[in-house]
Specification:
alpha+beta; 8-stranded antiparallel barrel; 26% helix; 33% strand
Length: 242
Amino acid sequence: MKTISTKLGSREGLALGTPQGLPLGGPGSGNWGHAGRKGKRGGSAPASYQVGITSAPPPGGAAKSDAQIRDDMGDFQRSMKATPVTDLSVELGRGGWEGGYEPTFVTQYTGNGEATKALARFGKEHKQQAVLIQRYTSENDPKAQPQNRIEFDRLLDSDQVTSIESVLVEAGLGGWTWVNRGNRAILMAVCIPQWGGDKSSHLASVKTVLSALQRSGLSATEEVRYVRVNLMEEGNYDDYIR
């Protein structure tokens, strides 16, 4: 892990998922702001996954309240529990991209194709452009893509998040996800080849972000994990449900 530091304001305790905090989306939550390409059907062997999915309405749809989003998250969690998954974790986070954000359900589990069907049904029901599925793998996997995590030593307020997101955009990152765990804020960004992501360019962008953060004052650690990236999209949800 690398240790970095940032100085981006002083208030703490951003409540992710609230209007003041984060309804955010981007590639980490199946947002509609990016053109996608056909994903591949997942296998049936159990494996560990991280998923970005949301019930936030597409453009032109009626906005949902915090209570509705949390009710949707509860429904989603119950639908996942109805499949043979283990180690299920569903957290309310904020996914973002340049000029936009939405609430996202940051989901981790170990499972197989039955869980994939539940994801596809939820994405279709809520008219999501895409659902991003990341399957953990080794760095040596030829299909591996970097998933970068920056964990701050405290919670961040909305001004701090906005400042950091400006740095992400300037560095050329197309999307990211925030989640609070305990008293720490975690920022995640993954390279998505289906949306034109290039591994070398992604890592260079993250390096630029870390250099910018290092010139300020909050302690944080950076970790790189490796994943295979799959996308389910509006046009092919039924392929996974069948």
